[in-house]
Amino acid sequence: MAEVADTMLKTSDGRPLKEALATAQARAKRRAFLLVMPLLAFVLLTFLIPIGYMLKRSFEHDGFSGSAPALVAWFEANDDFDPADPPEAAYAALVDDLARMQAERTTGLAGARINYSVPGTISMFKAGARAAKNLQPPFKEALVALDENWSRPALWRAMESASNIYTTEFYLVAADRKLTDDGWARGGDKERIYLYLFVKTFVISGVITVLCLLLAFPIAHLLATLPMAKSSLLMILVLLPFWTSLLVRTTSWMVLLQEQGVVNNLLVAMGLVSDDGRLTMMYNLTGTIVAMTHVLLPFMILPLYSVMRVIPPSYARAARSLGATSWTTFRRVYLPQTMPGIAAGSLLVFILAVGYYITPALVGGADGQLISNLIAFHMSKSNWSLAAAIAAMLLLSILLLYWLYDRLVGIDRLKLG
Amino acid sequence: MKKLLALTTALTAVGFAAQADVTVMSWGGDYTLSQVEAYHKPFTAATGTAVISVDSDNPAPAVKAMVEAGNVTVDVADVEYADAVRLCDEGMLEPIDASVLLPAPDGTPASEDFLPGALTECAVSTIVFSTVFAYDTTKFPEGPTTIADFFDLEKFPGKRGMRKGAKANLEMALMADGVPAAQVYATLETPEGQDRAFAMLDKIKAETIWWEAGAQPPQLLADGEVAMTTAYNGRIFGAAVGEGKPFATVWDGQVYEYDLFVIPKGAPNAEAALEFVKFATSTQALADQAKWISYGPARLSSGPLVGMYKDGKTEMAPFMPTAEANLGNALSSSYEFWVDRDAELNERFQAWLVQ
After folding, report:
1. How close B176 comes to chain A (CA, Å)?
2. Into how many domains does chain B fold?
3. Could you tell me the sign of the dihedral formed by the alpha carbons of A13, A14, A18, A23, in that order?
4. Closest partner residue to B339 among A122, A366, A384, by Cβ?
5. CB contact under 8 A, B225 and A260
6. Is residue B246 domain-shared with residue B263, that is, in the same domain?
7. How much is the pLDDT for B15?
8. How far is B307 from chain A (nearest CA, A)?
């Protein structure tokens, strides 16, 4: 061992080379890190923090717990109470809180929180808070005299749940559950929507991915094999829409697809459809699929093209010369080599499609809506927590998909260009 | 150093000048135009304070988002009644003391001059607008006359347009189903009543295009995309009278309500905002607005001052939601109902929409 140490290489100033190298490398790493610092800070500030903040809302809401301290304390002390018949002490705490809400102007906040689980309670809270100061015990009778719903078990369950700042309620709602007098249960047929839309969103995204692949494959092949002059012209045709604003592209589809639009006019002029029988291609699922396929097409073409460009034509020639038919050559020689491109393009298109919002909102009508439109709806209808819960579920399912993909295909086989 | 100082001073001065502007968020299109002409321009002329106009499909969610995020960029917003009440309850608006509002020219205090219910803790009404339905007269020369006709695809075939939301649609559906206006909200309180309204909407669902911005319905009618559509009455008036489009309004089954000005909590120029609201809700300003769009002023004293449309020949009075002839079968939108039921019924509406 001593011999090894003696033969260790040293720099001119006598330091072991290994050590010197490590110092130099550490310095280089630090410098490299400084270079990516701005990006890191940018991602952290504009992406991770806002998303984290938003996702936090899906399980945290202090609208009620922050404005009803007496009830919060009571629920903490009596966590095994019977929601069907809460004791007088609970009603007393409620009246106390209602009076406080009136004084601190927090009735709306608390009412809105409970209203998420038990609709129709905002006005109860408002009326209750206005009257609270003058209510006389027994408080149960007094409150029920104001509004008989004050003794509803569902309301007490909702208040107990809301007295904790952390809650899974929004996830339950996003999973189509509903708070009833007997606790959480499956929502009625007329109210179930989220899981259905989740499935629908994934199915439609799958359809769009397949359509994109079918359309993009020949184009990418052409791009990769045509002579330079022609292929760059074709490339511009691919990139031009890619560079055009999403909004412009979607609205131009509206011009094309609407009932009095270009496509219908053409069909009528050619006598293919009658003037009364104009096709409905917009404000429905068809519109969503057509416009989204077009908008997402470049995301499939570009990865495919970048892979196809470097596949040597000699392989296919070799296969043909060895007697393979053109179909076999394609299936067994060419196609496998394009797999990294197909995988990358499909993943890209699918993930983008799952979260798409603007295009379905503009051309989707009623049945072309995707889950992201529901997220937007709850954002605008001021139930941010539910929007956050649905968004978290969407994010999670995409991560799950990504993980599956990694297991099945391998993320290292991904080639983006 | 001196230069730098001068520069920063100049910049700060510019900053302050810019800060003194009032930013007003409203609903866009003809409606914003009427406000710019009747409120913004005269206000700037009278006080020197510039008014910046921002548009939105519905300013209420934007106000909520701004206040929650602690980054309020508008000083005044134009919202619907239920939203004004809810935002106020949630502590997101500055209270507006009715006693600071300008009295009528004859000295009547504002609290007595505004229509009943037009003043709330945090909001001041400007106009009465209405959701009506309108049709293309070239498609139906013998047009529909009742709200029931809107839901009758056999008698009046063709695409329909409706606002994408529960409010006003459910009320109209019930009135079309024969519920008297006075009992609409009592009916809609019950699950059976809600089913009844949705069953009515089911009849036209397959033929309906859903709009979101107030400017869309006249566009849909003009493009021939729909034969009939619900719309804010002023937008149809603008297209029909202002631009000469062949649209007719059916007042039967109209749902009317106030639109109100509010000041978001934490507005950058709350003081100037209050000055603006005082100015814009003065008797004359409200009467002037009616020159540009057919929405009724929310002050009694403004009524007699309402004259001609901007074209100088159209008498405005018959086009107002509150005109006697238009109130035959009309419903006053209940904010109490919608404050409570908005979340529930809109969720059901969304579920119904995608099913």
Report:
1. 22
2. 2
3. negative
4. A122
5. yes
6. no
7. 45
8. 38
